[in-house]
Amino acid sequence: MSQNKVVKELMIDVFEYPHIPYWFSIRQAIGIVKKSLLSSEKCHHPMAVLVFDEKYNLLGTLSLKDIMRGLEPNFLKPTTKAQVHAEDESGLSVLWDTLFDKGAKELAERPVSEVMIPAKFFVKPNDPITKAAYLMIHNNLVLLPVLEDKKFIGVVRMLEIFNELSDAVLREV
Predict the structure, then answer these.
(1) Percent of the chain with pLDDT over 90
(2) pLDDT digits (tens, 9 = 90+) for 30-86
(3) Is 131 a residue whose pLDDT tops 70?
(4) What's the chain look like in SS3?
(5) Are 157 and 125 in contact (CB under 8 A)?
(6) Average pLDDT, the chain
(7) Cα dist from 88 to 8, 43, 62, 84, whole Å
(8) Gap between the Cα atoms of 34 and 119, Å rounded
(9) Distance separating alpha carbons of residues 116 and 65, to the nearest angstrom
(10) Among 35, 46, 8, 13, which residue's Cα sits nearest to residue 158?
């Protein structure tokens, strides 16, 4: 039964996951992401890139969404947490389209530390996968770092968590 599965059974080792230092530019991160998405050598379908400091401490994650948000001009970003409605914002998207070539290239030179999501939530190798699912759902995360004795050892992704939980739901009684 999937409820008995623990994080370490689904975890991807830290060295098999794409990672970059925090001082890399968004442009450099895009190169790493594109290469790792197209390469099937180690980690299939990475959902984010891990961001480290000089001592290999995990600082955060950088997803495709974070990269795209980093390329968006500041004046187009919503000022409130309210949902952006496509029909209300169509004029702004056209404006971004006209400015994209020049503006995005400038914004892509910013360090990834400005757009990454800081690592605040963690699981342990022996935690149940339902704990990982709970943290992902309630914190809008696609992956969680796995810590063992305060040392970062890997990540668990929503993809594998979903697969396990959905198998339990679909399994015949």
Answers:
(1) 45
(2) 888 888 766 655 555 667 889 999 988 899 999 888 988 888 876 555 555 555 554
(3) yes
(4) CHHHCEHHHCCEEHHHCCEEECCCEHHHHHHHHHHHHHCCCCCCCCCEEEEECCCCCEEEEEEHHHHHHHHCCHHHCCCCCCCCCHHHHHHHHHHHHHHHHHHHHHHCCCEHHHCCEECCCCECCCCEHHHHHHHHHHHCCCEEEEEECCEEEEEEEHHHHHHHHHHHHHCCC
(5) no
(6) 81
(7) 45, 39, 28, 8
(8) 22
(9) 10
(10) 46
Letter for the amino acid at 13? D
Other CB atoms within 10 A of residue 144 CB: 26
**Cα–Cα dist 11/108, whole Å:** 31
Residue bearing tokens 């810590």: 147
Count of C-beta atoms within a 10 Å radius of residue 32: 17
